[in-house]
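Why show two proteins at once? Because comparison is the fastest way to build intuition. When a single record is shown, students tend to memorize it. When two are placed side by side, the eye starts asking what differs. So, the first record is below.
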Amino acid sequence: MAVATGLTGGFASRWERLNGPRRVAGLDLARGLAVIGMFAAHLLWIDPFDPTDASTWTDVANGRSSILFATIAGVSIALITGGRTPVSGAARERASARLALRALCIWVIGVLLILTQVPVYVILPAYAILFLLALPLLRARPAFLFALAAVLGLVMPWVQALTGQLPFWDTQIGAEIGLLLGLNYPFPVWIAFIVAGLGVGRLDLRSLGTQAALVLVGAGLAVLAYTLAVAFPAAPDTYFALVWTADAHSDGLLEVFGSGGFALAVLGLCLLLTRPWWAGAWLGPIGWLTLPLRAVGSMPLTAYVGQIIAWWVLQPAPEPGESTLEAFRETDPFVPFVVWTIALCTLWALLVGRGPLEWALDRVSRLAGRRGRGAGQAVDRVEP
């Protein structure tokens, strides 16, 4: 009887952690969508988007999933450093040290994944650098963060278009440094997404007004940027064309605001869909229906790393003239990877709790010192 009671109590605590009132279910849902979207970008053949051809609609995941991932990272940083009330004094110093150590661990994991030679651009080294760049902004207020994100989004694509064309990056050492710095997700541009997410995380994410504003502002930015890209295309093969583009992974001005706005709108919509719609409810009906996807979102690092490790293990030998990417995509891995990831993450979340890599990262980061009073007391216990 005692054993049964212990098992029941343990399951109840894990259920509470994933579904309880302290958890922001919409954030987990958005993270889960970002992870599955990155799976799609890696594992599917994706044709350019054509609104009249449903077979091309998977192109929505191309580039936008990783930008959603980065934007949510900014929200996570805000939440683990106090949410609406940023930690201060010694607590902020400890939180900064813990985040810096997390960044180092994430960078090491990213480099190890690169060494597997799985043919994807690993986002983790860039993710780690973005964590470090966010540290000086932990005290900033939302208005300043949103203004800074807008300025970075307007200015840095012009800089990236120049520096990204330097001949150095075509050399062997340049290519290797680019991988170590995650320059396929260039931090001079992508810091705008982290800063915007940090600003969002300093707002009241449970407020209906905040959620609606994210949807409306994000959708407005996306519609404006994509409309400008179609209505006023730049002349090809020019410096201006490198900047004035909404193409996925272009790091162009219109991609920054189009895909960045898309990320804000998706986040706001996920928060709206999972809000409790009646008094006393912990979770809205969509929250219950999306529990498996939210379980993935509760352990995004584990899901992302697990995908690449599984790819490394299962990678078939390519035929002559065939790339390793082509060989793996020809096995139609997307659906099995998604099904297994959702199933394993759900079982782990309900039977064990925190994702294994998230747990390990938290334990290592504690070496930077014990939490100060007020640190980690945000509304969501997130694991970046």
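Second record. Ask yourself what differs from the first in the token line.
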Amino acid sequence: MNDRAALDLLVAHGPLTRTRIGELTGLSKPTASQLLNRLEAAGLVRTTGRVSGRPGPNAALYEIEPTAAHVAALAVGHTGISAQVADITGTVVGASRVEAEAVAEDVRGRTAQLVAEAVDGALAEAGLGHGDLHCAVIGTPGSLDRATGELRYAPHLPGWHSRTLLGDLAEVLGTPVVIENDVNLAALAEQDEGAAQDFDDYVLTWLDRGVGAAIVLGGTLLRGATGGAGEIGYMPLPGAPLARGGSAAWAEDDAGGGFQSQVSAVAVRALAGGAPLAEALADPAVLKTVAERLATGIAAVVAVVDPELVVLSGSVAQAGGEALRAAVHEELSGLALPRPLLRISDIDGDPILTGALRTALHQARDAVFDTSRFDTAR
């Protein structure tokens, strides 16, 4: 427990002296010294210079050994796969992207190959190989049904529906693989380093080419029996065509049915005659219509789960910014009795990739930072 506490402090704060680690953990100097010696021998920490400018001998600074493990994070979209490789500190050391239309006939049977190509590109940039990876986390639309092993709620990703997909991916990557819903990962990114820090009850509403939500209650991500919790793109709303048969359209010129047909990027652009999102949402009439539609859908979610916070994320939220947030807040206050805080995502870069990376790091650290395995070996 002391080892893990010290390692977590080094992850959170960066390099620290033995004295500072002792102060933060409450350990005595001799115990802190023994701990650091043990972690250094295990290859989990290293010295990285000394602190000068104070009375007495210069104190050694300790940091996490970055090469103790590496992880891969991937985000799957309708036009390609993005991959990052990071060391155990979270520093990204390699990145790659493979362009591929998800619905193209020649792509359907090459899913594992395309994933491997994306990861291989990131590994090559980092000067690493498959043997250096501890795990990989992949963010995709839809959700993996834990009972069947099949990806559900993502008809636009036909190449990802094989029940042997997890095993196929683990084989080509040479490491364990986790597939997680992309919006869930975006929500976890917000909890780690974004707008949902310090919140245990919140909803992230994803507004992009597709529409979805991630629901976190009591600090726990709500998944549902088949992984479909938060698939609000299919949610029926007044005036919206029904998304019958569970197949929301994904064509460039079709916004599908249900809530998605009202507030997706395709739907918002259609309101402005096909104009770019930022230009469309700069139109007061379009902004008001989108805010009304968004508020109606969010009110339905709020009435059921009563979150403390709703985070708006995705390309529509980023294009609308504070003006959209304020307009939705005004509309929502008249529709929902609970009145949650409303924020725009402030994650830099791709929140799905960020969430996948954070999830992979949490998984790797739980295993690599468990020093009881060394005690057992002795």
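One difference worth noting in the second protein: Residues 147 and 162 are 14 Å apart (CA to CA).
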